Amino acid sequence: MAVEILGKSNTRREMQRKLREYFAAGVRLVWYIDPKRTTATVYTSVEGQPVHLDENGVLDGGDVLPGRRILIRDWFHRAEHGA
Q: How far is C-alpha 26 from the chain's CA centre?
């Protein structure tokens, strides 16, 4: 699994390259977290359609992290308040 926190300097091209590299290395789940928009994009392959989640969405670890579910809004709240 890989988690990327996106910043101002990340380009679409760079993130597509990283995505290909992650899956080529055997990663099965990638979460791109966008703090500016309080959203997440979930990838399970390079070719498949990503899942776009807003702050009310739930990140699910699937078979990579069974039972792990994170409400995006809670994630950002904890990050802002150091919890």
A: 16
